[in-house]
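Need tokens for this chain, all 360 residues.
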Amino acid sequence: MRVDLFDFDLPDERIALRPAEPRDSARLLVVDPNAESHLSDYRVGDLTSFLQAGDALVFNDTKVIPAQLEGIRHRDGAGGQQVSATLHMRIGPNRWKAFAKPGKRIKQGDRISFGHSGESCFLGSLDATVEEKGEAGEVTLLFDLSGPALDEAIAAVGHIPLPPYIAAKRPEDERDRADYQTIYAREEGAVAAPTAGLHFTPGLFEALDRAGIERHFVTLHVGAGTFLPVKADDTADHRMHLESGTVSAATAARLNAVKANGGRIVCVGTTSLRLIESAAEESGEIRAWSGATGIFITPGYRFKAVDMLMTNFHLPRSTLFMLVSAFSGLDTMRAAYDHAIQTGYRFYSYGDASLLFRKD
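Here are the structure tokens for all 360 residues:
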């Protein structure tokens, strides 16, 4: 499909720079392409009104790490140059794939000292070698530290990698360490938050429990590739970046039981949806799954397992806007986004949410 079909104009003031307070007071646009009235306005706190006992919410329990690193590049004993790297996928105890800037000036074999200002307790810096260099500024970094020691050093010298549409407007601060994390985050490894989950509070969890709504967790470590624009003119020419995830055997069995009993699978966020669809057979049965997924969902995709999706509002010409258009229909989602813009919904990571019914 042509990528420009997924374009729209968003006024700059619609980009949220902070989350709603409290989190579940954010607006919720309910989109049901199968109903006579497709669009209705609510709050996230009203979520239980659209679910029924026996339904299951699926959350992504990945935890954002301070994956934005600043450092000095060294080569052949020459003076250093300031560089930055955003870690996006761990591929070993001491190896990470990262997007580096300025990418053109970094070469295989370069040494980079991160946290050179003395922020780290590990001899004042965190050092790595550029093991490989790929396309679009992607590099493989081989760190001198490994395992938990590397994790501790990254936590000491790194910064929360705010999405570029927020970082362009204000610097990251201490508040973001809490705001840009779900209350159920557990498995460290993401460089971007599963943002639909940012709306949940302990009080909303209690309301879901009283309503008989099940909660289940999967893990997909969101990579920085989620912010990369689609530069191709046609979706067939776009390459998705891989992200690592896991669906446990116990979770798969429980979700299959929910479906067998007439319940619906409701994914909180596109990350959990992509993982469940990666783990699902053509029959709709969900299996235990672990690995890297690059599933690219565009209109025409047949959803195998997921019935409803809660998600934030996404960027124009993005893979995520393509995904929601596949889920509820392109015309429906274009109308939904136009309604959201005209009625003051807040967009992107810290913005409001939508609850989508799958198009029949």
